[in-house]
Design goal:
Layout (H helix, E strand, L loop, with lengths): L5 E10 L3 E2 L5 H15 L1 H9 L6 E3 L10 E2 L5 E7 L2 H7 L12 E4 L2 E9 L7 E3 L1 H8 L9 E10 L1 E3 L2 E3 L4 H15 L8 H8 E14 L5 E13 L4 H17 L12 E7 L5
Antiparallel strand pairs: 1-5, 1-7, 1-8, 2-4, 3-5, 6-7, 9-13, 9-14, 10-11, 12-13
Helix pairs in contact: 1-2, 4-7, 5-6, 5-7
């Protein structure tokens, strides 16, 4: 298999005992992942945590059924960890030893969880790819890409807008943020002007959104959106349609918006489609 510098893994886990836990555990998952990476490569863990630019890593919160105010061994839970930098992807890759294997135990907020399954494919949230593979697929093979694309925002998603937090996934915020992350690690850069192009030429066609909160690492909460948005390219711009598809595919690995290392901004393409006007 060729180099994968984009990887998304889903871990099915089970608590070893019933435990009271807060509903939002994004920072706890990030802490457990960073601790595991540090045991293998302290320098890489330090680079991820310094926060100078995109981290190359995203983590979900713990997902699954709560019973009252805690978790129980009667249920499975899931966490998701992704990489969009080559070194981080190498540290996560199950083919090279990986983050955790079946039977490994890690701790979240004082509760121990055992890994039951590592899902690298066959799940809409799992997969692997490469920057050059996406460039080849979307930019080197001209084809009539769909004008519209539906993204699912599965965890609270918000954006920094100057001194404000913006919980609305406007095209310039979503695609501008993805271009920044892409250009931080890809060997093939995209034009920085794509943010302005998205603002002018990509429209919100449909949406089904609601607000949700996530716990911030310093305390307090951040308000974000969850749900779906269908974006559409205005006019017959084949390049922008291809880039929209490329960045939508990239979003599964890179996440979107603030605090993606700590559970926010979990996003993927749900459909590329040609919807009738309504």
């Amino acid at each position: 298999m060729g180099r994968s510098d984009l990887i998304s893994l889903v871990f099915r886990v089970r608590p070893e005992a019933a435990a009271p836990l807060p509903r939002w555990l994004g920072h706890a998952v990030y802490g457990a992942v960073l601790q595991r990476i540090a045991a293998q490569d302290p320098g890489l863990a330090a680079r991820i945590h310094r926060g100078e630019g995109p981290a190359g890593l995203t983590c979900s919160t713990l997902m699954g059924p709560w019973e009252g105010e805690g978790v129980t061994p009667a249920h499975d839970y899931r966490i998701r960890v992704t990489a969009y930098a080559e070194g981080v992807a190498r540290a996560l890759d199950p083919e090279g030893g990986g983050l955790w294997g079946v039977g490994d135990v890690f701790e979240l907020a004082g509760a121990c969880f055992r890994v039951e399954e590592v899902i690298a494919e066959g799940d809409p949230w799992a997969g692997r790819a490469s920057y050059m593979g996406l460039v080849e697929e979307y930019l080197s093979r001209p084809k009539p890409w769909p004008r519209r694309m539906r993204l699912r925002f599965a965890s609270p998603t918000a954006f920094r807008d100057g001194e404000r937090w913006n919980p609305l996934p406007l095209p310039e915020a979503v695609f501008g943020h993805l271009v920044e992350k892409w250009n931080a690690f890809s060997p093939v850069r995209l034009p920085a002007a794509l943010r302005e192009m998205a603002a002018a030429r990509i429209a919100v066609m449909r949406f089904d959104l609601s607000s949700r909160t996530a716990r911030a690492p310093e305390g307090g909460v951040r308000v974000g959106c969850i749900g779906t948005v269908t974006y559409g390219v205005v006019g017959d711009d084949g390049y922008l349609r291809a880039v929209m598809g490329l960045l939508g595919t990239f979003a599964r690995y890179a996440g979107v918006g603030i605090l993606t290392t700590m559970g926010m901004g979990q996003v993927r393409i749900e459909a590329e489609e040609e919807l009738e006007e309504s």
